[in-house]
Amino acid sequence: MRTEVLDVPTSKGMARVHVQLDEASAGLLVLGHGAGGGVDSPDLRAARDAGLDSGMAVALVEQPYRVAGRRVPPPIAAAAQAWVEVVQHLRERFADGVLVAGGRSFGGRVACRSAVEVGADAVLCLAFPLVSPKGADRGPELYGVRLPVLVVQGERDPFGLPEEGEGRTVVVVQGTHTLNKDGDRISRVVSEWLRECL
């Protein structure tokens, strides 16, 4: 297992990417963090482990605003632009196999909005915030994705429970929006789904 930390320049500042991979990876799983968090959240670690167990290279992306020390994200369009540039950089380095884009909460929103632009084959959302704290409906970001999508959602997530649909699987696990109580199940569910994607 090889581990790399890459600093990737983007038009929104420097992003940092934590990559783990074997020499012969079946694809690339790229995951972004939540709005105020980092890449070490329990659900991202569980998804990372699932990706590695499935034979994929895994890249955990720290957005430029987090690398710069800020906790409040920029407008989502700016975050999506940085994300696209990072994923394009990663695809040049790790071009083989399928590309699964995703993330937790804000990171999942970014992945959904840019899935077509980055050429993703599937999207993984952990704790997708279906409704904003101010009540805005973010359903179109998720429901507009026309690729295979897995949503892993806490049973008591205050930001809503997405609906299943064509190509969209929703798995409910213990917990709230933090998804910090059922890591083993999250890892199993993500691993099974990834194997279907490969």
From TrEMBL:
Pfam family, one: Abhydrolase_11
One MF annotation (Gene Ontology) recorded for this entry: hydrolase activity
Coiled coil: none
InterPro entries (UniProt xref): AB_hydrolase_fold, KANL3/Tex30_Abhydrolase, NSL3/Tex30
Keywords: Hydrolase
PANTHER family: TESTIS DEVELOPMENT PROTEIN PRTD (PTHR13136), TESTIS-EXPRESSED PROTEIN 30 (PTHR13136:SF11)
Protein name: Alpha/beta hydrolase
Organism of provenance: Tessaracoccus lubricantis
